[in-house]
Amino acid sequence: MAEKIPLWELHGKAIGIDLSGWVCDSENFNQNNSQKNMYLRNLFFRTYNLLLIGVIPIFVLDGEAPLLKYGAIEKRIGGNKGSMKTHIVRKRLNSFQKQCELLLNIMGVTCVYSPGEAEQLCAILNKNGVVSGIVTQDSDCFLYGARVVYRNFNTSGNGSVDVYCMESIEKKLNIGRNKMIALSLLCGCDYDEKGVKGIGKEIAIKFLQSLDDDVVLDRLRQWKNDTVLNSVVMDIKSQTNEIKLELKIRNKAMENKNFPSEEIIEEFLKEPNYPKVSAKWILPDINAFINFALTKLCWEREYAINKFLPLLTRWHLMYDDKFQANILMTEIIKKRVNKGIKCYEIKWNNYEITTIEPQKAVQRRYLNEVSIFEDMHTTSSKKVKKKVTIHDRNLSDVTNKLSSINISTKHEKSKKIIEAKNKIKGPLDQFIIKEKINDESLTLSDFECDSVDLDLSNIINGIIT
Fold first, then answer.
1. Are the C-beta atoms of 131 and 125 separated by less than 8 Å?
2. For residues 19 and 253, what is the distance between their CA atoms, to the nearest angstrom?
3. Distance (Å, whole) CA 338 – CA 18
4. Contact 273, 300 (CB under 8 A)
5. Per the count of CB atoms within 10 A, which of 47, 176, 234, 274 is most buried?
6. Minimal CA–CA distance to 145: which of 16, 55, 328, 335?
7. Which phi and psi angles does 272 have, rounded to 5°?
8. Helix pair angle (19-29, 118-127), 10° resolution
9. How far apart are CA 173 and CA 158, in angstroms?
10. Which helix (H) or strand (E) is 164 found in, with range?
11. Of residues 3, 385, 386, the one with CA closest to residue 163
12. Max alpha carbon distance in the chain (Å)?
């Protein structure tokens, strides 16, 4: 159900990101890696790439986990409800989250705490149009109301990402949000990992597809006292395949007196109050990052500046209307192309490092400087073209001169001279021959060869010079 798209298609969009998902991914990957604070390093580079392609990320941090989830947490870590082990795990995750929040604030990126689970607020922001999509590994986001989910970021080359759209799921599978909640009740979710014993996804989906999305949850609620189903239980002949399937699922579900769980339904459908979220990128703090990188990432000062400066310069070009960044372009060095985008290589005051910036972004902030650079570049190009034109014209002249030479006439003149030489008898004859040569514009070489030998290289050089 996923569509793979290039990362650049996210340009200009705000996206919500479940921070805990990225932290857990990095920590799992880093189990056999000795590098310090890998989760912070990965967070920096992932966010860095998004910002430079024009994406505005909004990171959502976990609030207090719902009571429903504590049972699932205990099972995952092998502890008992309320055990010290659970407390330590939550405390460790909160510590990671605080360090990530500090880094993101330095980068100028918005962070917001969810009243509950991070994927819940991500989904609400997406449903309400604050963000265009969300980044999370938790499928429960669709149950909370998410419409577009991004997964499997790949930043190598031009980059790509997998996109899951609820609209596509609804059309292809005939499964809407309420049906997904019903599916979680039947097959399990974060708050009830078991679901209904003996009911798999294929059977559950087949049953749910026969119902309308807006009535499915009430249908599950009515199973306990459904007079229609009760009346056909004994009348086997009147049972259709759909009724047989529903009876099979209902019988297994009714083994649990609490089915369907109203707590789970309420968790997914409620929309808690949350703080106002602004989708914007604020001024990055390069000095704070240098200190952070030294202590948390073990990066040297020069390396930290090298990595962070492109964020500061890009923000300056795009948003620094009041010139708060304390940075100015000093020179456009040359034109560049980066991942198919026309760019300039730029030199900045106070920094020896150059950056590669999109031409449109540079033009937005430094229109006059770009105009001057382009004029100079255009003038230089014209001069090169002029030289090429002169050279081409000279070559043309050579061709014309060569074509104008009448070789047959040259031979005839040579023959005449040879005949004249044979007839020379005295001084008077020599004088007459000399005058004849002058009259016919002949040269001394014409007396000394019977054929025409043209040195092309000498002729070409003579014409050009």
1. yes
2. 35
3. 30
4. no
5. 47
6. 16
7. -70, 160
8. 130
9. 32
10. strand 160-165
11. 3
12. 148
Residue with tokens 């790509």: 160
Coil, helix or strand at residue 135: strand
Strand partners, 164: 149
What is the number of other CB atoms lying within 10 angstroms of the CB of residue 406?
11
| Confidence (pLDDT) at 236 | 75
Give the torsion sign (CA, 446, 448, 451, 454): negative
Neighbours of 313 (CB within 10 A): 26
CB neighbours of 421 closer than 8 A, spacing ≥ 6?
433, 447
Q: What is the pTM of this model?
A: 0.77
- The pLDDT of residue 298 is above 80: yes
Report pLDDT digits (tens) over 376-424.
988 766 665 554 443 444 545 545 554 554 544 445 555 555 555 555 4
Give the burial class of 162: count Cβ atoms within 10 A of its Cβ; 0-12 exposed, 13-18 middle, 19 or more buried: middle
DSSP single-letter state for residue 192: B
Structure tokens at 10: 């996210």
Contact 66/24 with Cβ under 8 angstroms?
Answer: no
Instruction: Quote the CA–CA distance of 15 and 126 in Å, as a whole number.
Output: 8
pLDDT tens, residue by residue, 95-135 = 899 999 999 999 999 999 999 899 999 999 999 999 999 99
In the 8-state DSSP scheme, what is residue 57? E
Distances (CA, A) of 340 to 46, 119, 337: 20, 34, 6
Give Cα 145 distance to the centre of its chain: 25
Provide the residue count of the chain: 465
Structure tokens, 248: 């099979």
CA distances from 297 to 61, 157, 413 (A): 22, 25, 91
Contact 385, 377 (CB under 8 A): no
First to last CA, the chain: 71
Q: Pull the structure tokens for residue 80.
A: 């008992």
DSSP state of 59: E
Place of tokens 């910002």: 51
Q: State how far the Cα of 414 lies from the Cα of 447, in Å rounded to an integer.
A: 7
